[in-house]
Specification:
Shape: globular
Distance between the termini: 51 Å
Largest sheet: 5 strands, antiparallel
Structural class: alpha+beta
Strand content: 5-15%
Amino acid sequence: MSLAAGTDDCHEIAASLRSMQLIDDGEEFSLVRLAGGVSCDVFRVDFASRPSLVVKRALARLRVAAEWNAPPERMRAEVAWLKLIAGINPDWVPRILGEDRARHLFAMAYFPPADYPLWKAELAAGRSDIAFAATVGDALARMHAATAGNATIAAAFANDEQFRALRLEPYLLYTAERHPDLAPVIRATVNQIAAARVALMQGDISPKNILCGPKGPIFLDAETACYGDPAFDLAFCLNHFLLKRVWHPQWREGYAQAFAALSTRYLAIINWEEPGELDRRSARLLPMLFLARVDGKSPVEYLTTEQQKSFVRSEARAMIAQPPANLTELARRYFAGSK
């Protein structure tokens, strides 16, 4: 084996791969640590004569400046979500190859970046593929539709404490502490999300977790999966178009069109509740998530100047104080403004 990723990592992952029956005794492989999120170690495992695979291992303490702990057992929720979605459409997720619960890790298929570019990288380069954005909205809505009102799925994904530790507390409640005048409305929204039992949320629908595949989007990173409010997933994803507009204002129009394409397609497919109600919830939540990406525990890494952060605070606070009626109004107010 290669020790490029560290001796301890290589030995642990070798033992895990053997326990999952993914390598033979003595089989050679190399281990490459992949860049990415703050909550997990992710490695590519390369072999001499067969396709690479990916191993993902949960961290108990996340890699952020503020103290942020979460149970590593959340890997089970991610594997369960990936398997469930594969049963709806196997093209939407990577195939699970093995699971090692004792080590809080699992193995899945690897997608070469040359053939499966990361959507975040495409957007960062100004390539706002409107048709692709619409397919993301379509797939997300169909996931929610397939799981809405299902008591069996609700019981299997009753990960409320996990979702609170990974999303509600670090993003919204932490932000509320830094903006005391907005705290009552933010906390009220958190309580509504925590009490919702509508459909299965993935919890981290973001361009950094979506690959652009030849058959459409491939969704990754579902360790925050929980049965709750699908409006969270929609708002969480749309937030990244707001953030990209601050990062690259020269491509604002493309981001606005992608926002509209994704949200319009999503709302057109809703069949589990009145679309206008979910539209309203998403529009009220979205500015709070926007603010959380500069003042929460997981600030977005590419907004680095005080001018950028001040702009986000100003826009977000104004929309929280005077909530838009729906996502169309939010986009009109936000993307039409000057920057």
